[in-house]
Amino acid sequence: MNTTKIGWIGLGNMGIPMAEQLITADYTVTVYNRSKDKETALKEMGALIAETPKELIATTDVVIIMVSDDAAIEQIFNGQEGLFSAEISGKIMINMSTVSPAISKEMDTLCKEKGAQYLDAPVSGSVKQAETGQLVIMVGGDETAYEQVKPILEKLGKMAVRLGDTGAGNLAKLAINSLLALYTQGLAETVVFANQQGIKTEDLLNLLNNGAIANIFTKIKGDAIIADNYKPAFALKHIVKDLTLAKAIGLDSPLAKTALNTFEAATAKYGEEDLIAVIKQVKG
Questions:
Q1: For labelling, which of 39, 164, 201, 268 has a CA lying 20 to 30 Å from the CA of 56?
Q2: Integer Cα distance of 51 and 81 in angstroms
Q3: Helix (H) or strand (E) segment spanning residue 129
Q4: Which residue, 182, 193, 183, is CA-closest to 213?
């Protein structure tokens, strides 16, 4: 059994399969989640359960966080029973959430003041890649801390790369998700245009998936469109959050502006659905 004790905070669509990867790899994993029902399956696999982040960090060496936004990070660290309410000297915090570089720099500074290390390490990939340990992980922060936890990251992804100092991982992830938004809207518009010209969705996607621009994303989201299945692997509301974060640090291109406007307009009706549900907004 691996001797490093891991704490895991955040059991959403990505957090559950990622934590499962570590349990399968024989790490001792303690989990905390606000919605306690999501802890059940992991408990049955052998995970320990903590009632608060403070309780979780007391018995772990490395804490991994996978939550939705900056506000959740603020609460996890600075809440009444948050990580900073405990003794954290010598611990390593790995924030794998897609959040702003600013919140990472703030938490990094506070961690260092308390004798701990902080890494931002968001991931590229969706639920399928999380389930199979094939995520791509982009890391910002101290190189020594990164090398210490690299074996853990390599259980979660097929690639882990340190890009620079604190916030570098967040910056890379926002760039990647900006492209994801552009591509998603482009795929949606292409399907709608083809349909308007009498081309069936199935026929169009068969051509795309066998052509020069074929890729896994088109296959997965194309299948979702054909099946009219918008169960969220990545909720549309989250791409709005990511584009807004990217805009805040300078993304101001014509395509990015258009994508943000489109996804924002879709949020009221389709925010809880998968991001490819933007096709329903495009159809009007």
A1: 164
A2: 9
A3: helix 127-132
A4: 183
φ, ψ (nearest 5 deg) of residue 212: -65, -25
Catalytic residues: 173
Tokens at residue 76, please?
């996890």
Q: How far apart are CA 108 and CA 5, in angstroms?
A: 21
Q: Residue for token digits 């549309």?
A: 236
pTM, full prediction = 0.95
For residues 129 and 17, give the distance between their C-alpha atoms in angstroms, rounded to a whole number: 9
Orientation angle between helical segments 143-156 and 15-24, nearest 10 degrees: 90
User: pLDDT of 18-75, one tens digit each?
Assistant: 999 999 999 999 999 999 999 999 999 999 999 999 999 999 999 999 999 999 999 9
CA-based torsion, 34, 229, 21, 159: positive or negative: negative
What are the residues whose beta carbons fall under 8 Å from the beta carbon of 107, sequence distance 6 or more? 73, 77, 93, 95, 118
Six-digit token string for 25: 């790899």
CA dihedral 138, 140, 146, 150 (to 10 degrees): -10
Choose the CATH number for 172-283 among 3.40.50.80, 3.30.70.2740, 3.20.20.70, 1.10.1040.10.
Answer: 1.10.1040.10
5-165 belongs to which CATH class? Answer: alpha beta
Amino acid 247 reads K
